[in-house]
Structures are given as structure tokens and as C-alpha cells.
Hints:
Elements lengths: L13 H18 L6 H8 L3 H7 L3 H16 L8 H18 L1 H13 L3 H9 L2 H13 L9 H17 L9 H14 L1
Amino acid sequence: MDAQHGRVGRPRSEAARAAVLYAVDDLLVEEGYAAMTLKGIAERAGVSRQTIYRWWSTKAEILFEASWTDAAEELAVPPGGTPLAEITSYLDALVRFLVHSPAGAAYRALLGEAQHDTDVARLLASKDVLGDSAKAVVERAIGTDTLPVPLDQATALLVAPTFFWILSGRDPGLLDVSQLARRFLTDMSDR
């Protein structure tokens, strides 16, 4: 049994897995979420549809795995010396992820799909891609003992302005992440 997915069958080939994850990123950029099919993903990856169905049930599951795996890496920022530097670095990474990364494009596509597909909404709720990365930064940069709100609320306050700005179609070049970082730190110390 594949422990990761709870399915019976041969162990997953890492090469086939990587090919599928790369293919789904490429197809999302080229065709968009709605036009992407499992058949097309299999053809692009050079694997059979049976290989895909062995590990994933839907294109949303594949896209989510690709997005979550890359997001964990892209949103992990090194310690920044000061809380302001670290929070600013994180917000810069968040903008890059949401605007320029194929994983960010995948995440945005899944968010849109989740608005009318409860299965995709449940999938997104299973792992909080942005919240987990933000928690790590908040815990390291300012700690949790003195937060005026629960950690989940603090991370929402950190991510929300950037997230809303980007997802509502505003120009990311006009977003001042340094100002947002300063405001966040002030809010976390003033309450």
C-alpha cells in the first residue's frame, strides 16, 4: 500500500511523479486549468493514465501536490537578522510566488476552482500552503508569546493584504512590502 496516498499498487516511481508534476505546471501555463485534462497531463509527462490514476484521482490533486511542494520551498525564507528584514523578505517571497511562480499560478487556479467545487475546497483546506509558511516566519521573527492574537490570526493579518492585492488584479509593482511589514509589526506590538 502506498502510505502517502493509501492506495494499493506498485511503489510510485519518483521519475514518473516528477514528470507528472512538471507536466501539470507546464499545461496550466499553456492551456489554463479548465482546458487541462488527465489525458493531456499523462501525454505531456510520458506516462500512462493508469500511472496517474494510481496516485491521483483528479487534476486538482496533481496541481495541489505540485503547488504545495514548490510553495514550501519558495516561501521558506532564511533568518533575516531583524524582524522587519525577515517579514519583508517573506512578503517579497509571497509576491514572487503569487505573481511569477508556476506553483503560485497553480495555487491561484485552485483557489478559483474551490469557489464552486467543494472537493477542491476540501483539498485546499487539507494543507494551508500560505499559512504554514507565514507561521514559520512569525514564530522565528517575533515569537508567539507576545502576540496579541492567536498565531493563525497573526498569519492571516500578515498574508491577507498581499494576497488580496494580487488576487484582485492590482499591479504588484505598486505594492510596498516594506510598508506592509512595518505595519504588521506595529499591529503585533500595539495590541
